[in-house]
Amino acid sequence: MIYWKTLVDLSLGMVGMLILLRATGKKTLSDLTPFDLVFIMVIGGILEQVIYEPYRPITYALWGFLVWGLLIFFIEKLTVKGDHFRHLLKGRPALLINDGKLNRFELERNNIELEQLRTLIRKNDCFSMKRVKQLILEVDGQATLLTHRDVDDSLTYFLIDEGIIEDKVLETLKKDEKLLFQSLNELGFTNVKDIYYGEWSPEFGFYIQTYDETKGHFICVDG
Known about the structure:
By secondary structure, the protein is of the alpha+beta class. It is about 45% helix and about 15% strand. The protein starts with a helix and ends in a 13-residue tail after the last strand.
């Protein structure tokens, strides 16, 4: 009997979750925001209680789905009609790189490290920060990238991270700090602590942005 109950509970739960997802207009996981993921986790929690606590009838889950679904439905309607409420719940797109310059304000506000930023651009088939013109972090966590068409791409090595030299990368390149400091001095950089981001490639050499260049500020991309 318990097996049949589990089968019925899981089947009804799956149908209920699909109905709620379609009712809120979500088609794929890429459409989901962090707020939507919380919504799904709560639904999963309701279904879990029915499965693992036999004394709870399936009507408990169906009632929970209904109430939670109605709450989400009304919240979705509010976010469509009110910009302030939508941005409060779902956030805004963040312009992480603007006109080729790192936006340190947005990077810090979104808790994104430079290594994570490099991963984002590599996922968009770009391997040098020098080639990036605009990079937007969307509210669903995906990145939208616009590149300079007249700048060639090349695999780069991340040498300086917020004023700190990446020793492991230097070892990989079979270089030492003395040679690095000498090269930086030739480019006019006398203090590595002033450098926010520094990469190097065999084809194009150094690409560096200082702290002064990358202060950044909030830029509203969407209304």
